[in-house]
Design the sequence.
């Protein structure tokens, strides 16, 4: 850190503000549209959840007025609308994930970007471009932080890392100069927060964390626009984000391939299951073994699951909660519950994570047949691949096993356009009509050629 050498935030700000958006490859823009569609499905589908309704009541019932769309109806100020929309989109636990970004980018980035774009009357094309750079920024921070240590300290990186992606994206909507973007990132570093004690008991504060990140991203950019300055060395400084939030960090990773040769959002995965990403490989294994060998649920004696180390604190421990999830939020982070419903129903979507199933005798019985362990064998795939090995033993003594590295929805094992379309409709139609969902789908597919206000007008 020398005064004459540009800081990481200064180099990133220059990189994004000088980018030629017309040079972004078509496949990257296509992926961005898919990401936005996936977020819309989650945000619309989660708009009538109790957690979303509570967020609306808390933030929008005090007589405040605004012009930014709130999912499920109404308007609010940009920051509060972004908060509610982030909570809404994180509730079903089917929002996208990006292991290199260290979390779920969409819920931290898109609500803030959409709010800023609607407020500014931005074009759909500019919105897509902003999302692309927001994802890129989050991936760069995610690579630099020590992910395992960051989680171990109790931080929720979707929020703590995601705020930098949201701030970058909103800054691009606002057409910031490099100096303004650098300041916005510095300010955002002081707002970075998000705690994961909710893993232990399934309380719903996890859904609030991206809400804070989205709201704070808007606040950081407003302060920067007003002339407020942020610290230059917000990332690599002794008291900067990386060193303050984890040990053994790699600041140099933030400047890797700073030449427009890669785009962070291309590492994004789409979730086919309504549970923590750490449960997806075990779910895939279970469904695959049963389907390929014609095994029926009633034939299963035991399901043994070996997981990566990072999964233990999220979906394995504390075992008394994971085997007896008291609420849906806890079930979404329970490995035995997720594997049990996959074995019983052949899927683990939103319908399998409902209150009535938490006490269902068949589900409880199957959960008790699930044995979880961490042998260390799966850790060789870390940090970016959450592999799992599953062995199913049947009552007649037969054993069947499978190893899954790249799960369904990963870039290496992608969902097709039709599968993503089906997912959008299955989520959105939980809250709106098929006709309305078709209008929103058509608009999202034509986002390059319409204004954001055209899209948001359909969200009421």
Sequence:
């Amino acid at each position: 850190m020398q005064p004459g050498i540009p800081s990481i935030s200064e180099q990133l700000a220059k990189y994004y503000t000088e980018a030629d958006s017309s040079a972004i490859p078509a496949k990257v823009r296509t992926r961005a549209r898919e990401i936005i569609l996936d977020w819309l499905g989650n945000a619309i589908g989660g708009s009538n959840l109790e957690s979303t309704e509570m967020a609306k009541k808390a933030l929008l019932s005090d007589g405040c007025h605004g012009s930014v769309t709130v999912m499920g109806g109404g308007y609010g100020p940009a920051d509060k609308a972004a908060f509610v929309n982030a909570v809404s989109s994180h509730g079903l636990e089917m929002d996208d994930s990006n292991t290199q970004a260290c979390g779920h980018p969409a819920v931290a980035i898109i609500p803030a970007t959409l709010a800023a774009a609607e407020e500014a009357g931005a074009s759909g094309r500019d919105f897509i471009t902003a999302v692309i750079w927001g994802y890129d920024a989050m991936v760069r921070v995610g690579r630099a932080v020590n992910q395992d240590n960051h989680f171990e300290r109790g931080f929720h990186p979707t929020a703590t890392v995601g705020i930098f992606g949201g701030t970058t994206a909103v800054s691009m909507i606002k057409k910031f100069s490099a100096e303004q973007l650098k300041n916005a990132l510095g300010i955002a570093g002081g707002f970075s927060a998000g705690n994961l004690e909710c893993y232990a008991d399934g309380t719903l504060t996890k859904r609030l964390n991206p809400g804070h990140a989205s709201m704070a991203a808007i606040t950081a950019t407003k302060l920067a626009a007003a002339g407020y300055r942020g610290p230059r060395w917000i990332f690599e400084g002794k008291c900067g984000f990386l060193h303050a939030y984890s040990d053994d960090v790699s600041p140099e990773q933030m400047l890797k391939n700073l030449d427009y040769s890669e785009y962070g959002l291309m590492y994004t995965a789409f979730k086919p299951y309504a549970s923590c990403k750490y449960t997806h490989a075990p779910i895939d294994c279970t469904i695959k073994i049963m389907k390929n060998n014609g095994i029926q649920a009633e034939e299963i004696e035991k399901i043994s699951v070996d997981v990566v180390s990072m999964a233990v604190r999220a979906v394995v421990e504390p075992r008394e909660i994971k085997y007896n999830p008291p609420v849906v939020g806890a079930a979404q982070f329970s490995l035995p519950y997720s594997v049990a419903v996959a074995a019983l129903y052949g899927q683990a979507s939103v319908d399998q994570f409902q209150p009535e199933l938490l006490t269902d005798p068949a589900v409880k019985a199957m959960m008790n047949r699930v044995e979880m362990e961490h042998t260390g064998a799966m850790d060789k795939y870390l940090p970016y691949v959450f592999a799992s090995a599953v062995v199913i033993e049947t009552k007649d003594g037969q054993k069947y096993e499978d190893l899954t590295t790249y799960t369904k929805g990963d870039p290496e094992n992608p969902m097709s356009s039709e599968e993503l379309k089906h997912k959008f409709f299955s989520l959105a139609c939980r809250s709106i009509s098929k006709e309305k969902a078709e209008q929103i789908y058509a608009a999202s597919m034509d986002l390059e050629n319409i204004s954001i206000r055209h899209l948001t007008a359909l969200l009421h």
Q: What stands out?
A: The first helix runs from residue 8 to 17.
